[in-house]
């Protein structure tokens, strides 16, 4: 029996009335044939993403190894079961095939990887917008930027962005890729996946949240006025409450009751530096403790100090290129004056 578009929408409406997307019953139906063992936090994350009707999406920020790809697969399966099949996954180029394999092997969902070659082939076949296909579209960040106008014209039912922290500096005008993608999917439902929503600065969290909802923090000036100085527990509590409706994060220690991890035992190897290595360590430490470091931005000084000390502890070869880069930076700045 072949359904007309009218009857397909009618049956989808009837099924939605029986069980909404944000219910376990609905997910059970959509995942009946899926070849994956779901954990409670993954189901909860998917339900969280469906429960945000007032926003245009959610950030799923579980720690590394807790199955964010599975959580996104649940969302995509549910939308596919609802016959809402304009689905897009934007991810790093080296993860496109992995995403396709996950969708095919575990959720039995059809997919197409769009790149320059496959895009042009679709154009030659008469498809003037290759993003409009009866399959889940997978593409890289760079390709999404170059074809952002096609993405903007497509009425997506869901956009998933994997490794979303790569777009965290979207608040900077100079970040062309992030701004192009943000504009292209501005009015579409979206889910951001990242294990590190915050790395160096709170402004990165502001950038990711702005992908979902521009009004959560207001403009950049308002955010800085409220959260630039986090000095008390109340400040952190206020920030958590502000992002609670759109950000879900599960930590490894929270899943220990039902996920068993292999215990790791550190093997300590004693190392005694020679005289030259000890002298280098002392010189670099003295430099890093200087009152002013023109080669390091003040906002990044603490982070760069940690990185340099780790490189220094690794080997002289590991830190040599970094020190050379700092020296070249200072020479360039001096010549420019």
* Count of the separate structural domains: 2
Assign the CATH topology of the largest domain.
Rossmann fold
Helical proportion? Answer: 40-55%
Name of the CATH first level of the largest domain: Alpha Beta
Strands side by side in the biggest sheet: 3-4-2-5-6-1-7
Give the full name of the CATH homologous superfamily of the largest domain: Tandem AAA-ATPase domain
Task: Give the amount of beta strand, in percent.
Answer: 5-15%
User: What average pLDDT do the residues reach?
Assistant: 84
Q: From N to C, what is the helix and strand string?
A: HHHEHEHEHEHHEHEHHHEHHH
Tally of DSSP β-strands? 7
The CATH architecture of the largest domain is: 3-Layer(aba) Sandwich
Low-confidence stretches: none
The CA-CA distance between the termini, in Å, is 77 Å
Number of helical runs? Answer: 15
**Structural class by helix and strand composition:** alpha/beta
- What is the radius of gyration? 24 Å
Query: What is the overall silhouette?
Result: globular
Characterise the protein shown here.
The chain is α/β, with parallel strands linked by helices and 337 residues long. The protein folds into two domains: 10-254, Rossmann fold; 275-327, no CATH class. The chain is 50% helix and 8% strand. The chain is built from 15 helices and seven strands. The protein has helices at residues 5-18, 24-30, 40-50, 68-81, 96-107, 116-124, 141-146, 148-153, 176-184, 202-212, 220-227, 233-243, 275-288, 301-314, 316-336, and strands at 57-60, 87-91, 111-113, 136-140, 158-161, 190-193, 247-248. It has a seven-stranded parallel beta sheet with strand order 3-4-2-5-6-1-7, with helices on both faces. α4 (68-81) crosses α5.
């Amino acid at each position: 029996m072949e359904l007309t578009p009218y009857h397909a929408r009618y049956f989808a409406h009837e099924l939605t009335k029986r069980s909404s997307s944000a219910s376990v019953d609905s997910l059970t139906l959509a995942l009946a044939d899926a070849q994956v063992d779901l954990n409670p936090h993954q189901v909860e994350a998917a339900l969280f993403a469906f429960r945000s009707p007032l926003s245009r999406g959610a950030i799923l920020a579980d720690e590394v190894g807790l199955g964010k790809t599975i959580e996104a697969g649940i969302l995509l399966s549910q939308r596919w079961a609802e016959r809402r099949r304009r689905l897009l996954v934007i991810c790093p180029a080296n993860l496109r095939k992995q995403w396709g394999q996950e969708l095919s092997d575990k959720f039995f969902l059809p997919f197409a990887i769009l790149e320059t070659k496959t895009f042009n082939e679709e154009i030659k076949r008469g498809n003037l917008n290759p993003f409009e296909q009866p399959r889940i579209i997978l593409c890289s960040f760079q390709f999404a930027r170059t074809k952002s106008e096609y993405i903007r014209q497509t009425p997506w039912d869901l956009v998933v962005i994997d490794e979303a922290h790569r777009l965290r500096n979207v608040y900077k005008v100079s970040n062309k890729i992030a701004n192009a993608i943000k504009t292209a999917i501005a009015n579409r439902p979206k889910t951001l996946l990242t294990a590190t929503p915050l790395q160096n600065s709170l402004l990165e969290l502001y950038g990711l949240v702005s992908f979902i909802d521009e009004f959560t923090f207001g403009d950049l000036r308002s955010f800085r006025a409220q959260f630039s100085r986090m000095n008390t527990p109340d400040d952190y509590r206020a920030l958590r409450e502000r992002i609670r409706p759109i950000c879900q994060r599960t930590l490894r220690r929270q899943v220990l009751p039902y996920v068993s991890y292999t215990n790791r035992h550190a093997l300590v190897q004693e190392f005694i530096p020679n005289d030259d290595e000890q002298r280098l360590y002392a010189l670099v430490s003295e430099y890093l403790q200087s009152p002013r470091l023109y080669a390091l931005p003040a906002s990044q000084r603490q982070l760069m100090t940690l990185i340099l000390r780790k490189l220094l502890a690794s080997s002289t070869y590991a830190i040599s290129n970094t020190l050379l880069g700092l020296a070249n930076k200072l020479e360039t700045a001096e010549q420019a004056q």
